[in-house]
Design brief:
The protein is about 20% helix and about 30% strand. The chain has helices spanning about 15-25, 40, 55-70, 75, 175-180, 200-205, 230-245, 345-350, and strands at about 55, 80-85, 100-105, 115, 120-125, 130-135, 135-140, 145-150, 155-160, 165-170, 185, 230, 255-260, 270-280, 285-290, 295-300, 300-305, 310-315, 320, 325-330, 340-345, 355-360. It has a 6-stranded antiparallel beta sheet. It has a 6-stranded antiparallel beta sheet with strand order 2-3-10-5-8-12. It has a 3-stranded antiparallel beta sheet with strand order 7-6-9, with no helix packed on it. Bound molecules: fe (ii) ion (FE2) (2 copies). It comes from Streptomyces chiangmaiensis. InterPro entries: Cupin_2, GDO-like, RmlC-like_jellyroll, RmlC_Cupin_sf.
């Protein structure tokens, strides 16, 4: 369906000199006629301003590293090269209401603590020695590890390697928070948090999957996961195991959600995250749904077709799927698996009853590419 002048129930008022004068008089009272914008503000189906976009890690990496010499981390607040959707420069979004960027920390560098209303997550792209202190808890994270910084938790980061930088991908819901005029930001009064003695304590307490603390560490009532770090060394074998037992999803291959171990729900109220494997030679079928997704290629290479455009990707690349865009993924290799990390706003879509999903039924489930 498209906008049409002859569909009953849709605005189809022509412009006359009388109406033009009337609109001007309304505007003089901070008012307007709904029928002049109704078709635009209530489209037949989602009309995202974001466009499918691919960011090459090979292209961006030298630019990210260049920032190490150009700005001090604490002067910049955070030393991050943000990825901006060509259609959403107005709100610094990578897609939809999601923000993302590549943060770099030099050897031995550390930053002071802050907190904000936006929820954050990290996916480590390269470098050993990254650490973050979230809510007083020190986490060490390595390549392909996933970690969360729930909203309004104090956090500070650093890199304790003495010879190599760390680059990790940040994902936040900043545009969502700002769309609701709910943004707050604070720097820590003492610059640094008091730290618990045990590193990775949430992982040690809550990281055993189906085995939960019993009779201790209970009473967790916060609306986010008590587990703050999800190591690759646990996530990747979980994918391999699932691939032995299931065919996975026709649209995503073998896909697992990083979840709150106490509820089985998303890691945070506004952001969800997945890890998915495309087996050697696998090409998924196309589907579309509300909600926006940002992918990071954790392993391997392949391509995705998004709204009819083909994007080839390889390790470290980032790409996005706007809401309601048809998308399908394919592994380029006949011998190796490809793994995609992704994060999304699905928890928002679901909690607000905005979720909708459909399969692409034509052409054996594959979009024509242009
Ligand atoms: Fe932050
Ligand atoms: Fe999807």
């Amino acid at each position: 369906m498209t906008y049409s002048d002859d569909v009953l129930g849709r605005a189809r008022v022509g412009e006359t000199p009388e109406l033009k004068a009337y609109y001007e008089r309304l505007a003089g009272h901070e008012a307007g006629a709904l029928w002049t914008v109704a078709n635009e503000i209530e489209p037949w189906y989602p009309q995202p301003k974001s466009v499918p976009t691919h960011w090459s890690y090979a292209d961006l990496r030298p630019l990210v590293l260049e920032s190490l010499d150009l700005v001090k981390a604490d002067d910049a607040g955070r030393r991050v090269v943000m990825l901006v959707n060509p259609g959403r420069k107005d709100i610094s979004a990578a897609v939809g209401m999601l923000y993302t960027g590549l943060q770099v920390m030099g050897p031995g560098e550390s930053m002071t603590a802050h907190r904000h209303q936006a929820a954050a997550l990290r996916f480590v792209v390269e470098g050993q020695g990254a650490w973050t202190v979230v809510d007083g808890q020190k986490l060490k994270v390595g390549p392909r590890d996933f970690a969360i910084t729930p909203n309004w938790t104090w956090h500070e980061h650093g890199n304790e390697s003495d010879d190599a930088p760390v680059i990790w991908q940040d994902g936040l819901d900043i545009p969502l928070v700002n769309a609701h005029d709910a943004g707050f930001y604070e720097v820590h009064p003492n610059h640094y948090q008091e730290r618990g003695q045990v590193v990775n304590s949430s992982l040690l307490t809550y990281g055993a999957g189906e085995l939960r603390p019993y009779g201790f560490a209970d009473g967790w009532t916060k609306p986010y996961s008590p587990l703050f770090a999800y190591p690759w060394e646990q996530a990747y074998p979980a994918l391999l195991n699932a691939a032995r037992a299931t065919d996975g999803s026709p649209y995503d291959g073998v896909i697992l959600e990083y979840s709150n171990p106490l509820t089985g729900g998303s890691v945070m109220p506004t952001l969800g995250a997945h890890l998915q494997m495309l087996r050697p030679g696998e090409a998924t079928q196309a589907h579309r749904h509300t909600g926006s997704v940002i992918y990071n290629v954790a392993k391997g290479s392949g391509h995705s077709v998004i709204a009819g455009r083909r994007f080839d990707w390889t390790e470290g690349d980032i790409f996005c799927v706007p809401s309601w865009a048809w998308h399908e993924h394919a592994n380029a290799s006949a011998g190796d698996d490809a793994v995609l990390f992704s994060f999304n706003d699905f928890p928002v879509m679901r909690s607000l009853a905005f979720w909708r999903e459909e399969a692409y039924l034509d052409n054996d489930g594959h979009q024509p590419t242009n």
